[in-house]
Design brief:
Number of strands: 10
CATH architecture: 4-Layer Sandwich
Radius of gyration: 17 Å
Distance between the termini: 9 Å
Shape: globular
Structural class: alpha/beta
Strand order of the largest sheet: 4-5-6-7-9-8
Number of domains: 1
CATH superfamily: Metallo-dependent phosphatases
Largest sheet: 6 strands, mixed
Number of helices: 7
CATH topology: Purple Acid Phosphatase, chain A, domain 2
Helix content: 25-40%
Oligomer: single chain
Strand content: 15-25%
Length: about 240
């Protein structure tokens, strides 16, 4: 039986001055993978000019391409417009949502959301004190709910794949300064994923983190920030 090949990369930070660079990195992806996942930080500052440049860079990619946005893509407060531009160019952007592809007779479900910060394991920030801190924590809690909702909506698929920007585990941020760990991910994201199940999780955001880790339930997690995987990584669903 043929293996389904999933290519994934994040933190590509396309902007107008990088014209042609990302397209060059993608030259072989149509032959090396069956689907391409983009794990956020697709632009530098989330401007529409950068989003247009991104769409142009992806023109040569013919395999299905699915994305989530990252923190950089929110910088200009145009994240909805950026997402709509991508969707209008046949690049679905997941935000607590999911979709299914049939590849070689198997159904592959992709559940995605941006995720958020908050910390890991026994050190996740609690919603206590100032309103600003409570708002910060509640933003992370909402992203955890979103990935739960997306996975719950995936029914009768052969493989569940989770796409995030922020990390769901501490393992894959190791290598970054310890002081910024709480801003690189939130281990509460892993709770619904472990409960509902997935074959693999991809995220980015931690440019100098570690490539591979696992959730407490044993699901493989890959940090696919471009600084770590260069062009992209290819993972085979068996």
């Amino acid at each position: 039986m043929a293996k389904i090949r999933v290519a994934a990369v994040g933190c590509i930070h396309v902007h107008e001055q990088t014209a042609g660079h990302f397209a060059t990195l993608m030259e072989k992806v149509n032959d090396e993978a069956d689907i391409l996942l983009l794990a956020g930080d697709l632009t530098i500052s989330g401007s529409m000019d950068e989003a247009l440049a991104l769409v142009k860079e992806l023109t040569l990619v013919k395999i299905p391409t699915v994305a989530v946005l990252g923190n950089h893509d929110h910088e200009s407060s145009l994240s909805e417009e950026v997402a709509e531009l991508l969707r209008s160019n046949h690049i679905p952007v997941l935000d607590g949502t999911c979709l299914t592809y049939e590849i070689d007779g198997k159904k592959v479900g992709i559940a995605g959301t941006k995720g958020f910060a908050g910390g890991f394991e026994g050190h996740v920030v609690a919603p206590f004190g100032e309103k600003a801190l409570k708002d910060f924590v509640h933003a992370g809690q909402r992203e955890c709910q979103k990935i739960e909702e997306a996975l719950t909506d995936l029914e009768r698929v052969d493989y569940k794949v989770v796409l995030l920007h922020y990390s769901p585990v501490r393992d894959t941020v190791v290598g970054e300064p310890a002081e910024i760990y709480p801003f690189l991910g939130n281990s509460h994201l892993a709770v619904p994923i472990d409960r509902l199940g997935a074959a693999v999780i991809f995220h980015a955001h931690a440019h100098y983190g570690t490539h591979a880790g696992r959730t407490p339930g044993g699901i493989p997690v890959f940090n696919v920030a471009r600084t770590l995987v260069h062009n992209y990584m290819v993972y085979e669903l068996e």
